[in-house]
Amino acid sequence: MKVLCYGSLNIDFTYEVDHFVQKGETISSQALRTCGGGKGLNQSTALAKAGAEVYHAGCVGEDGRFLLEQMEASGIHTEYVTVLREVRTGNAIIQNDRDGDNCIILYGGANHAITSAQADAVLDAFEAGDFLLLQNEINHLEYIIRKAHEKKLKIILNPSPMDEKILGLPLEMVDYFVLNEIEACQILGCRAETQGEEMAKLLRERFPAAAIVLTLGGDGSVYADREQFFRQPVYRVKAVDTTAAGDTFTGYFIAALLKGLAAAQAMDIAARAAAIAVTRKGASPSVPEWAEAESFLFP
Ligand code: RIB
Fold first, then answer.
1. Ligand 1 atom nearest to 37, measured from its CA
2. Ligand 1: does its nearest atom lie under 6 Å from the Cβ of 46?
3. Among 15, 6, 150, 142, which Cα is nearest to 78's?
4. Tens digit of each residue's pLDDT (9 = 90 or more) over 238-275
5. Would the pTM count as exceeding 0.85?
6. Is the pLDDT of residue 192 over 80?
7. Phi, psi (deg, nearest 5) at residue 142
8. What CA–CA distance (Å, rounded) separates 289 from 273?
9. Whose CA is nearest to atom 7 of ligand 1?
């Protein structure tokens, strides 16, 4: 069983700031870091570091060739990433404040240059039972989901960053949702006061064939499917940079399922890996190895 992550590849420019810049304000940063990012690349990195055989598909410009080298060094197969001449690689301008929080501006670039011909060629290399992991940073998502469903791939959707395009997708074809409360609320069209566990139950009612992983920030996460419903606590750490913590969680959760672990164990190792990622700077460089995630001693 193979796992394909069809998703974004970004060059992340992270500015370390005291506070996020306000309207009309100009501020200085303490440092600028450049590293590989994009929800797709980060999740592929987490899958690979957790020991999965992962194939990444997507597009970069010539300026993004170094991302392919980084991914290959992490053990990710990159033969389904197309290097385009005319388009620049997607990028993210990230502010990382003194509390470890971030805010992000995205430029889609090559991530929005995926063609249906590329999607056909990539998906033809995968077969029934293989996993397909998607986020919301590439174009042609609907086409990819329909084709993958036709081929009986298991579809995992992390609808992040959330926008109205997600609501137009054939969500009934998704086998696993990994999402946060804001994304869940928008998909459900629910009231603002609807809380975590209630929201997970509503998602399960709306998508009875799917498994739901609902992340609740500092309150941990909830797993729900037809047979199980349980909560996973968060591992408390001092946050340095939260960028890619959610991506680490998603990649680890899927990798653990592929290893044959039960949902409860998969949620636990995903929570451990995400907590470690928060203690480190950067997106993909913050993802830990499986052995470390397993043995890390939390305070
Ligand atoms: O989830 C974190 C990622 O979001 C960053 O790496 C950035 O590139 C954006 O896609």
1. 6
2. no
3. 6
4. 999 999 999 999 999 999 999 999 999 999 999 999 99
5. yes
6. no
7. -60, -45
8. 8
9. 38
Q: Is 12 a catalytic residue?
A: no
22 CA to centre of own chain: 28
- Domains along the chain? 3-7+39-88+112-295 (3.40.1190.20)
Q: How many residues does the chain have?
A: 299
Which of 37, 66, 75 has its CA nearest to residue 285? 37
Instruction: Give CA–CA dist 183/157, Å, rounded.
Output: 11
Cβ-proximal residues to 23 (8 Å cutoff; 6+ apart), any chain? none
Say what angle helices 116-123 and 141-150 make with each other, to 10 degrees.
30
Using alpha carbons, select from 35, 9, 8, 45 the residue that is nearest to residue 254. 45
Strand 54-61 to 3-6 pairing: parallel
- For 117, the enclosing helix (H) or strand (E) is helix 116-123
Looking up tokens 């969500």 gives: 171
| Atom number in ligand 1 closest to CA 102 | 2
Which structure tokens are listed for 13?
């420019």
Residue 247, classed as helix, strand or coil, is helix
CA-CA distance, 268 to 257, in Å (whole number)?
A: 12
